[in-house]
Design goal:
53% strand, five-stranded mixed β-barrel, OB fold (Dihydrolipoamide Acetyltransferase, E2P), extended, 6 strands, mainly beta
């Protein structure tokens, strides 16, 4: 899972895109319990640089490790693997008006 230069690559799901050129990506990994040998899912959230502001919440993305870009950003979005399904959600006021 590493690329030239020993940089790490991870796949994850975008959980937030409210910042300028930054997305929060949730990365899941599976670890083995040392004593009971059960596989456990562990999740970590990392901030990644999204230069074009193209990622939406729910997108599956590939991120790569890079030099520190800010206090918490050490990852960069390289590509969007799968787009999230966009749904039309009406606000509560429109729903009430439609029912009446």
């Amino acid at each position: 899972m590493s690329q030239g230069g020993g940089r790490k690559e991870r796949k994850g799901v975008v959980t937030s895109n409210r910042m300028e050129k930054t997305v929060v990506v949730s990365v899941e990994r599976v670890v083995m319990h040392p004593k009971y040998k059960k596989r456990l899912k562990r999740q970590s959230k990392v901030k990644a640089h999204d230069e074009k502001n193209e990622c939406q919440v729910g997108d599956r993305v590939l991120i790569i490790e890079c030099r520190p870009l800010s206090r918490e950003k050490r990852w960069r979005v390289t590509q969007v693997l799968e787009r999230a399904v966009q749904m039309d959600i009406k606000p509560e006021t429109e729903k009430r008006e439609a029912l009446q």
